[in-house]
C-alpha cells in the first residue's frame, strides 16, 4: 500500500513537472507576439513543419495530463478512505492557501485548457478571428496567429477569462513545484526554503508573462493587422 502510494505520488510529481516545462516553453513562444506578426507567425508555421516533434509533445502532454488527474483523484480517495471521519477542527498550521486549494485550482485549469483548445487550436470561439491569414515572406499565406491572439484579447471577457485562468495556474504552481520536487526526494532542510522561494518566483514570472499579453492587447499596445 505504502509503495504504491509513493509510486502514485511520483507519477503526479513527474507529470506535473513535465507540464511546468511546457508552460515555460509555451510562454517563450507566446511572447514572440511582442516581436511582431512575422516573428510569431513564422514560429507557429515552424512548429507545424516539425509535425513529428509537435505530435510527440502533444502525446506526452496529453498523457501527462490524464495520469496527473487520474492519480491525484486516486490519492485523494485513498487518503479519504484512511480517514473517513474528518477532523473536527481543521489544522492549517503547516499548509498554505495555495496547498489547500490544489484540487480546486487544478479542476479550474483543466476546464480552462478545454476552452483554450477550442479557442486557439480548433478555432471554435470567434471563428472569424481564427480565419485571418498573413503573407509570410518566402512562404506565402499562413494562419495569422498574431491577429487571432490580439483581436481575441481585445474582447474584454476573453481577456478577463485568461487573466483569471492564468492566476489559478500561478496559484497552483506556487505549491506544485516545491511539492513535486519534495516528492521526488529533492529534500533537505537546507534546501527547503530556497526551493520554496524559487517555486514562488517561477509562478510569479509565469503569471507576469502570460498576463502581459491580454493586458497589452486590451491597452492597444498590440494592434491586429486586419
Ligand atoms: C496569454 C496566454 C496564452 C496565449 C496567448 C496562448 C496561445 C496559444 C496558441 C496561439 C495556441 C495554438 C497553437 C497552434 O495551434 O498553432 C495555444 C495552444 C495551446 N496552449 Fe496556449 N496560450 C496561453 C496560455 C496557455 C496556458 C496558461 C496553458 C496551460 C495551462 C496553455 C496550454 C496550451 C495547450 C495545451 C495548447 C495546445 C498545444 C498544441 O496544439 O499542441 N496555454 N496556445
Overall 3D geometry? elongated
**What structural category characterises the helix and strand content?**
mainly alpha
CATH topology (level 3) name: 3 helical TM bundles of succinate and fumarate reductases
Low-confidence stretches: none
Q: Whole-Å distance between the termini?
A: 59 Å
Q: What does the radius of gyration come to?
A: 20 Å
Bound heterogens, unique:
protoporphyrin IX containing FE
Number of domains: 1
User: What percentage of the residues does DSSP assign to strands (E)?
Assistant: under 5%
Average the pLDDT over all residues and give the rounded result.
90
The biggest beta sheet is recorded as: 2 strands, antiparallel
Note the total helix count: 9
How many strands? 2
The CATH class assignment is Mainly Alpha
Q: Quickly give the CATH architecture.
A: Up-down Bundle
Could you estimate the helical fraction of the residues in percent? Answer: over 70%
Can you offer a commentary on this structure?
The chain is mostly helical. The termini are far apart. A hairpin with a 3-residue loop joins strand 1 and strand 2. It has one domain: 3 helical TM bundles of succinate and fumarate reductases. Helix 1 crosses helix 8, helix 7 crosses helix 9 and helix 8 packs antiparallel against helix 9. Bound molecules: protoporphyrin IX containing FE. Protoporphyrin IX containing FE binds next to helix 1, helix 3, helix 5, helix 7 and helix 8.
SSE blueprint:
Blueprint: H1 2-30, H2 37-49, H3 51-82, H4 97-100, H5 102-121, H6 127-130, E1 133-136, E2 140-143, H7 145-153, H8 156-183, H9 189-218
Antiparallel strand pairs: 1-2
This protein binds protoporphyrin IX containing FE.
Protoporphyrin IX containing FE binds at residues 23, 26, 30, 44, 58, 61, 109, 113, 116-117, 120-121, 145, 149, 162, 166, 169, 210, 213-214.
Amino acid at each position: 500500500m505504502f509503495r504504491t502510494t509513493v509510486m502514485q505520488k511520483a507519477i503526479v510529481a513527474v507529470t506535473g513537472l513535465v507540464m511546468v516545462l511546457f508552460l515555460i516553453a509555451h510562454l517563450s513562444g507566446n511572447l514572440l507576439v511582442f516581436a511582431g506578426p512575422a516573428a510569431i507567425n513564422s514560429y507557429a508555421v515552424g512548429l507545424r513543419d516539425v509535425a513529428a516533434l509537435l505530435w510527440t509533445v502533444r502525446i506526452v502532454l496529453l498523457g501527462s495530463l490524464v495520469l496527473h488527474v487520474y492519480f491525484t483523484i486516486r490519492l485523494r480517495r485513498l487518503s479519504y478512505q484512511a480517514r473517513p471521519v474528518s477532523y473536527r477542527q481543521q489544522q492549517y498550521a503547516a499548509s498554505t492557501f495555495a496547498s489547500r486549494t490544489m484540487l480546486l485550482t487544478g479542476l479550474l485549469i483543466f476546464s480552462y485548457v478545454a476552452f483554450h483548445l477550442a479557442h486557439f487550436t480548433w478555432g471554435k470561439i470567434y471563428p472569424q478571428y481564427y480565419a485571418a491569414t498573413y503573407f509570410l515572406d518566402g512562404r506565402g499565406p499562413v494562419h495569422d496567429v498574431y491577429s487571432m491572439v490580439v483581436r481575441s484579447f481585445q474582447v474584454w471577457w476573453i481577456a478577463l477569462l485568461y487573466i483569471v485562468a492564468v492566476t489559478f495556474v500561478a496559484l497552483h504552481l506556487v505549491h506544485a513545484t516545491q511539492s513535486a520536487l519534495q516528492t521526488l526526494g529533492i529534500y533537505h532542510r537546507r534546501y527547503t526554503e530556497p526551493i520554496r522561494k524559487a517555486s514562488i518566483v517561477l509562478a510569479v514570472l509565469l503569471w507576469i508573462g502570460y498576463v502581459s499579453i491580454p493586458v497589452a492587447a486590451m491597452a492597444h499596445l498590440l494592434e491586429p493587422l486586419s
